[in-house]
Amino acid sequence: MAFDRLIENIVNTQNPSVVGLDPRLEYVPRFIVERRIEKHGRTLKAAAKAILDFNKAIIDEIHDICPAIKPQAAYYEMYGFEGVKTLYKTIQYAQEKGMFVITDGKRNDIGATMEAYAAAHLGFSEVGGEQLEAFGSDALTVNGYLGTDGISPLLSLCKAYDKGIFVLVKTSNKSSGELQDQKLESGKTVYAAMGDMCEKWGAEVMGRYGYSGVGAVVGATYPEQLEEMRKALPTTFFLVPGYGAQGGGAEGVSKGFDENGLGAIVNSSRGVMCAYKKEGCDEHDFAQAARREVIRMKEDIISFLPKIVLPE
Amino acid sequence: MAFDRLIENIVNTQNPSVVGLDPRLEYVPRFIVERRIEKHGRTLKAAAKAILDFNKAIIDEIHDICPAIKPQAAYYEMYGFEGVKTLYKTIQYAQEKGMFVITDGKRNDIGATMEAYAAAHLGFSEVGGEQLEAFGSDALTVNGYLGTDGISPLLSLCKAYDKGIFVLVKTSNKSSGELQDQKLESGKTVYAAMGDMCEKWGAEVMGRYGYSGVGAVVGATYPEQLEEMRKALPTTFFLVPGYGAQGGGAEGVSKGFDENGLGAIVNSSRGVMCAYKKEGCDEHDFAQAARREVIRMKEDIISFLPKIVLPE
Description:
The first copy, chain A, is built from 14 helices and 10 strands. By secondary structure, chain A is of the alpha/beta class. In chain A, strands 1-2-3-6-7-8-9-10 form an 8-stranded parallel β-barrel, surrounded by 7 helices.
């Protein structure tokens, strides 16, 4: 239920971090890209296949030490339907290896259309009486600007199929404050009001470990807001982007965790995917470099946390 | 530049409406679905192919009297990458027939990732030095919750490739007010603050006819807000969903238009796609029924407008 499987994966690996698979083609080692271009020409298909090769190799290396991946839909869509096929195959591959998959799509729409997104990413679509999985992810990031009827179609799916959503509350980017930090007449900020809605929505889909199936995205680049939200939203699990390349540090992100070392999962994308570039190692060693970075990041983050345990 | 091509299409057809191609499989006549299931089994591919057949037939019937289509990404994603392939083919087909295509994806993310969405839907992706179009739409709906750096990557593309975006301002759904109608300390509502940002962003991408490449989504179900926003946002073109099935009427949507009968385009999805069901005609006649509904809708809307002319 809710994020229980994610939480169990975190406890089993003692690692509250998630690897963002946001594979810009320039992150993929040249030997992989060239091999695929040789076979498929300079096509979207070649790019999509190269990215799948890259993702699989990284998943092979990290699945035993990392609880989850977070593929970012934009980087697959930019290679057209071939890219989107790679998104699907990446999700399936990671799940086969026991990983929890969060599709970062920030989807949002009104009720009936949100049902379609829910079916697409977390549920099933019916064709001639058959129930078919389109993407079959475990969780989806969503944008709550449209209010409750843009969220409720997801809640019933979260309940029925043991899935979760993360709602954007306070994003990691510089201009996130333009709207999100504005104060409402009530004195609350827009992001705090969105956080309150997460708690309310989540009450319908509570899990075993004190967290609901409605999580919140709160950026690592805003530790004060992370601390504020951790206190204000006791049943909301946090997805924390912005660690590493975007400037968020481990001490800052520790503000998003609870006394059991739970309550948040920290994302790193570029840091892991491009570890081989940073290390300056042979590019054929990219997946092992990714593993080394996952371990480094985990050690960095847990050094500021209590031991990670399931709540009693 | 900006929405100039859309505006010219509207003037040429004397029709300020757009057909939303949001093809739930149950909207597609049974004979089409059955034919595809016979060929491809009960698969996502069969659904995707049936939807493409359906879309093409409707486009064939309406392209000469309707300026634009608005495919809703969710209904394609729910059939997986095969569905997304149908989205691509629908976009290409409508453009070949001279229609302006608005992909309704409500995409949003931080800067670097928004660049990927921009490349995906409005621009080009590079593979081995080749610039390739992934979806190649003319405009994209986006969600501005993340602020300027989630929007600016789109502005440079709008300029470079003559494209546009529509930012969610006041959505047509019932619970849109939960966040959007809240008042900020300044006394403005959240939606009005978002509208102001549209004007600001749009200043960078002004078109020939007084409207910028940054439009706003304002629901037909809120005529008062349409009127308020039309006055407050003189250079922002409106995409108006919620006419018909959702309850918005022609008199109400007229509030979104200017003195030249321009400034807005009204969407109908179900009303057109399911016209054959409402009429009770033979389902083989679905595309002609769609055409009849496009004409009826156009007449309904323009009856409340001045003659549609390009500004002098």
